[in-house]
Amino acid sequence: MTMEKNKINPEKAAELLRKYNNFLIVTHENPDGDALGSSFALLLYLQLAGKNVQLLLPEQVPEKYTNFAPAGNLTYATGLDWANFDFMIYIDTPMPQRAALSELNFKNIPLPSLNIDHHPDNINYAQWNLVIPEAAAAAEIIFMILKADAELKITPEIASLLMLGIVMDTGAFRFDNSSPQVMRHAAELLELNADYHHIINEMFFSVPLSQIQFQAELISNHLRKACLGKLAWFFVPPALIEKYDVNMRNTEGLIESLRVICGTEIVVIMQEHKMGYKISMRSKNPKYSVGSIARKLNGGGHEMAAGGLIKTSTLKSAEKILITHAEGVFNAV
Ligand SMILES: [Mn+2]
After folding, report:
1. 292 in helix, strand or coil?
2. Number of domains within the chain
């Protein structure tokens, strides 16, 4: 198979969905609301179109999202029988190594593939690539594809799943990626009866008390600042995670509690990792790219939201490295 780096538009993607019949959908590790909402929506849509579809997830659906998971056709295995598929779709995945297929050699996947993503650092690795960095969420791009396919109706359930992706990747329309277009798309999804009320209740108004207490203790005892308060971070002690029995998968609320503090510009959650210290970063200001820091620290992502890994053995040196990179970003402006 020739792997031309074909860049395509949503119309062409819709055509590919019509043309093939046996789909394998994959998304990235630690799947978030956008990865899951987009994948579930596409799974349902293709099923309605009478296609065979399998969604391969890197792990069990996180508890927060189990209510949104459609029944059946989800799998966590990596021992796939390629003969069951004739087309593969990557969703929200900037490079194939981030996908759920960790045990496979990506170069040997015997299927034509489509890469649907909005990460600016996407490397256009598939046979067909629909990468729109201006899109706030992969769900927004899936919506464009489904709209381009005039044959099928978008059901309220599919509209809700796409809304879930958009809501989570825009922080319910508070982040910098909340463009006029994504708001128009959200309005259209509401007209298609997306259950916005349910999504907001589940995602933002349903935090377990233990999580709030965990957060309170982190803020009281583990908040650190540098660069005149423009950089703020938590190192999350493993003992604290254990004490409150929290799932560190849901760190969005945690990073929120740093982001809201007056004067902060770059906020970071730092956690132990077998190879050093894992960092998840958010910027409040487009002038300060956390994406640029992440790319220097074994990671990647968007300019305003990114993650990396500081490979060092002590917390002190990890913090020093973080501060140096943040200073670099602040001083460059
Ligand atoms: Mn996304």
Report:
1. helix
2. 2
Of the candidates 145, 167, 152, which has an alpha carbon nearest to the alpha carbon of residue 36? 167
Residues 103 and 21 reside in one and the same domain:
yes
Range of the domain at 215: 211-332
Q: What is the pLDDT of residues 250-290, one digit of tens each?
A: 677 899 899 999 999 999 999 999 999 999 999 999 999 99
Asked if 235 and 196 sit in the same domain, the reply is no
pLDDT tens digit sequence for 82-120: 889 999 999 999 998 888 775 555 667 889 999 999 999
- Give the span between the Cα atoms of 100 and 26, in whole angstroms: 6
Q: Is residue 1 part of a domain?
A: no
Per-residue confidence at 5, pLDDT binned at 50, 70, 90? low
Q: From ligand 1's centre to the CA of 85, what distance in Å?
A: 25
Residue 75 has pLDDT above 70, yes or no: yes
Over residues 219-240, the mean pLDDT reads 96
Q: Which long-range contacts (CB under 8 A, 24 or more apart) does 117-120 make?
A: 117/90, 117/91, 117/92, 117/93, 117/141, 118/92, 119/92, 119/94, 119/300, 119/301, 119/302, 120/291, 120/302, 120/303
Give residue-wise pLDDT tens across range 11-66. 999 999 999 999 999 999 889 999 999 999 999 999 999 999 999 888 888 888 99
The Cα–Cα gap between 26 and 89 comes to 6
For 205-221, b where at least 16 C-beta lie within 10 A, e where not — what string?
eeeeeebeebbeebeee
| Ligand 1 centroid from CA 130, angstroms | 14
Compute, in angstroms, the gap from residue 283 CA to the centroid of ligand 1: 16
CA–CA dist 299, 280 (Å, integer): 10
Same domain, 223 and 251: yes
CA of 169 to the centre of ligand 1 (A): 6
The rounded Å distance from CA 139 to ligand 1 centre is 7
CB 297 within 8 A of CB 308: yes
Q: How many A from CA of 137 to the centre of ligand 1?
A: 5
